[in-house]
């Protein structure tokens, strides 16, 4: 637990087996860096790679279902595919992408030089990467997860499941989710402490950019949701391996307990995935509408309200389990209630765009697409909250349509908006707008082509998680359309990757503030220096950077202040970069091996759990104990290092 | 005069830690980062234990139980004694912290070791209890009572064990002179964890042993 000792005094000598890494540039530095911006890029790259993998799984599923009696996958391969698609998209794409953006921009938006726990941050990344690779290693070692991303016990837990779910699939899933939980909990702790403790002077909570606010809510949700799913995973593990009977009804266990625990995590998880998207959109819309966000405090408080209400609706995933009329009525009502703060947000976004000088950049298009798609998804969500209609829709493709409208239309559109908006800040180069717009339209069309018909096939009765179907139910044509749509989405993703590669060399160099932005991250160079701010900013207003650039003249018209901004003012920009004292005397945390060492030990514990082989514990515990011990003794900043 | 002023200005701020750019000092909440981080981790751990405690409450008196019931196996006087010892370890932890804050390193080493030993005594009691219960026929797979009892108390025991390893490492560092008055913050963080584990045990002990069926 000495992970929290970042401020250890420097004096005493340390036992060092690994020599302290010095280099902060070059290939090897990526393994030891504690710079939150580099870690963010690693999170983003990893998440994008998993996005491609999860996308390929989706394509296989769609190929299988393109026509009746599909033969692309066997039934058990199909189980593996939809399990891994869901698990990947939720745990290895959605959450890491949010952490990537949060890691990069929370410190920049609140005017901090770093996050609270740089090495814990690094540790969290490696755990997520190793956790992801661990789950996928199931493909090599006796079975990838195949019990659905919700892993319902007793299907995944009982001894009976050796018949229906052969191999180690659920074992890999259970251990992998626990590993990923460790990673996301460390990120959450890091974010909360950073936001609460490390804001620049004058950056009050109600002056914080909405993205940072939403990430704070997300961090609290993660902090309280992950331990619950971890507890459920531990019970499944014991059921599978030590013949406990937590979820086996014949022995007095209760299968519903699993569903309660899982959805008590799983529903807040939905908001963990969607709130970052909402935050990104709230950043993008004001900038390209050239208006302040409409009703800032309402946006913030509705986000907090969603965070609270998200805990009170979990049983709406269980309407068909026979909880009893009182319980399902209560959860139906609470589910309708949560639509209110969500709707409030949508009106705020529309109010922001309304009457603005709208610039339809790619980022703006993705944000507008977010609002439209998310609204559709939200509306079908309200349909689910009506218990009688949910009883009809549950476990049909209607549900699949709903959550893809919310999570793809919400999270992924929001994230792509964030990519196009913040890319110049991160990499110092602009993404190609023409390709970008093409990406947007392809994705919007492909998305609707894929998921809209799912509403209809669902309503006419096509069950989800079914690997094939007979002709003649009226599903054939719509399924074919969906498959075509899925490939259009794949094309759009491919186009985005081409854009990234193309502009890495050819893209126009970005100025520090290419979009005439509002928040602090646009006040420093693109990409930012390692210490972020040469002088820690003193914040005087919400949208502080904007207020430093603009003022009103006597007639109330907006006037640009070139001196404050240095936006298009090449001279001023040079002045910032060449500032004599820039970067001197600023101590930044030194790179470290130990987060990687500790994280490397964890998958061994995972394998020990999967194969019930204590010999895996030995290297795992050695790495962890050595890593934690050395980590605790190592000073946060090596004495005598200055940038 | 000027020399004194100069000297005063050059006196390092206490504690003598450089500004690492991670803003551990002068925070908005007034709580330093490591402590706030530990508080957050513990709040997360509350839900972890909460899930297992709820599970135990749901399962301890399920209808079709086989094997021994709580009334058959529990030896409440024995567990009360080990629980008392665990609670006393919170007292010694407080004494350890106040010793290191006052720079009394010898006392610190004694109290931190006492804390670890009290914790170890508790774990010893738990091991004895587990073997005794198994002998009386209560196993992990005997009943839902057995499953939820062993997993809940076992996970608490695992937390205590991690704490003991942590405390002994701190003691070892102090023996080598690598732990000084300036490090009292680290002891505070370790103390938070240790007190939390004790408090959780009060809840578990009450819920499992004391509340009658």
Describe this entry's structure for a reader.
The complex is a heterodimer of chains A (643) and B (213). The model of chain A is unreliable at 1-13 and 564-580 (pLDDT under 50). Chain A has 643 residues and is an all-alpha fold. Chain A has helices spanning 29-32, 36-65, 75-110, 118-137, 161-164, 169-197, 210-242, 255-289, 296-309, 325-353, 362-385, 387-393, 397-427, 433-459, 476-506, 544-549, 562-565, 570-578, 594-611, 617-633, and strands at residues 550-552, 558-560. In chain A, strand 1 (550-552) and strand 2 (558-560) form a beta hairpin. In chain A, helix 4 packs parallel to helix 19 and helix 7 (210-242) runs antiparallel to helix 8 (255-289). Chain A is globular, with a radius of gyration of 25 Å. With 213 residues, chain B is an all-alpha fold. Chain B contains seven helices and no strands. In chain B, helix 2 packs antiparallel against helix 6 (144-175) and helix 4 (76-101) packs antiparallel against helix 7. At the A-B interface, helix 6, helix 7 and helix 20 of A face helix 2, helix 6 and helix 7 of B.
Helix amount of chain B = over 70%
Given as residue ranges, the uncertain stretches of chain B (5+ residues, pLDDT < 50) are 4-25
Oligomer: heterodimer
Which strand-content bin applies to the residues of chain B? under 5%
Would you tell me the structural class of the helices and strands of chain A? mainly alpha
| Main beta sheet of chain A | 2 strands, antiparallel
The counted number of beta strands of chain B is 0
Query: How far apart are the termini of chain A?
Result: 30 Å
Main pleated sheet of chain B: none
**Mean pLDDT of chain B, rounded to whole units?**
88
State the low-pLDDT regions of chain A, or none.
1-13, 564-580
The whole-angstrom Rg of chain A is 25 Å
Question: What's the shape of chain B?
Answer: elongated
Strand arrangement, major sheet of chain A: 1-2
Instruction: Figure out the total of helices of chain A.
Output: 20
Briefly note the structural class of the backbone of chain B: mainly alpha
Count of DSSP-assigned helices of chain B: 7
Strand content of chain A: under 5%
Shape descriptor of chain A reads: globular
Would you tell me the overall average pLDDT of chain A? 90
Instruction: Give the topology string of chain B: H per helix, E per strand.
Output: HHHHHHH
